[in-house]
Design a protein that fits this description.
Layout: H1 2-18, E1 39-43, E2 46-50, E3 54-56, E4 58-62, E5 71-75, E6 81-84, E7 87-90, E8 94-102, E9 108-116
Parallel strand pairs: 2-9
Antiparallel strand pairs: 1-4, 3-7, 5-8, 6-7, 8-9
Length: 126
């Protein structure tokens, strides 16, 4: 009887493979074959900038072969700091958080930004 059971199981598995009901897939792959974003990181994770000056942040998406690497940048307080495509500009003294959000998967990463109100260094004119 075991021989019949094994033959039946082998037949079922063969048919399942033939008709595509058994498949293996990577969790990062979408049904359309594109590769999903699994994480995003911002560098640096903290920054200090003077009023009127700028610093540029970079975002790294994982995996490297993700199909849609679109990032949206935002500031928690645009009265303190603004951001445009990763370029952070100090507006007034204070602190704010810059967030990078992926379009695919809505993954986020942040950078804490401190804006100082220090006057620029003066040069002696002769």
């Amino acid at each position: 009887m075991n021989r019949f059971l094994l033959k039946g199981l082998a037949s079922v598995l063969t048919m399942a493979v033939m008709f595509g009901t058994v498949s293996c897939s990577d969790d990062d792959d979408k049904p359309d074959g594109s590769v999903a974003v699994s994480a995003v990181a911002v560098s640096p994770t903290t920054a200090t900038v003077k009023v009127g000056e700028s610093v540029t942040l970079s975002a790294t998406i994982t995996p490297d072969d993700a199909t849609d690497k679109t990032i949206t940048w935002s500031s928690s307080d645009e009265k303190v700091v603004t951001v445009d495509a990763g370029k952070v500009t100090g507006v007034t003294e204070g602190t704010a958080t810059i967030t990078a959000t992926t379009k695919d998967g809505n993954k986020t990463a942040t950078c804490a930004v401190t804006v100082s109100n220090e006057a620029p260094s003066s040069k002696e004119v002769r």
